Amino acid sequence: MSIAIREPWGLLNRLNRDLDGIWAGAPSTEVAFIPPVDVHEEKDRFVVRADLPGVKPEDIEVTAEKGVLTLRGERKAEKRENADGYERIERVSGSFTRRFALPENVQADSIKAKFAHGVLEVGIPKQPVVAAKRVQVEAA
After folding, report:
1. Which of 61, 43, 44 is nearest to 110 (CA)?
2. 3-state class of 17 per DSSP?
3. Residue-wise pLDDT tens digits, 86-136
4. CA 81 to chain CA centroid, nearest Å
5. Are the beta carbons of 14 and 20 closer than 8 angstroms?
6. Domains and CATH numbers, the chain
7. What DSSP character marks residue 30?
8. Which residues contact 130 (CB under 8 A, 6 or more apart)?
9. Residue 118, Cβ neighbours under 10 Å: how many?
10. Which of 10, 46, 88, 114 is 20 to 30 A from 4 (CA-CA)?
11. pTM flag (> 0.70)
12. Rounded to the nearest 5°, which phi and psi values hold at 23?
């Protein structure tokens, strides 16, 4: 079983960014910050990796509740004393939330997250596979 990704607004946001660039000549800085995420399965765990450049670890929240893994955080805007001299500003900032449905065979209470070099890695351990036990049927 794999993790089901539920991002209903992802495609619409991407289309909005693309159209914004066509009509404005450049991407808008008002577009929401939606970090790209990779999800893959290993033998004993699922791994979620999110690119979060410019985000501080204390601004990231990872929760697992009711079968849903949630990544939440904020990339804060740089303070610019003077906007003069900027020809183009493309790096977006703001709050983000990403949610993923967890399969039933995970140990939600053992999820671990680490953050290094702008990448958040969340390890979601699988429950051990229990072999089926054959039950002897006795004659009455």
Report:
1. 44
2. helix
3. 667 777 888 999 999 999 899 999 999 999 999 999 999 999 888 889 999
4. 32
5. no
6. 4-79+91-125 (2.60.40.790)
7. T
8. none
9. 12
10. 114
11. no
12. -80, -30
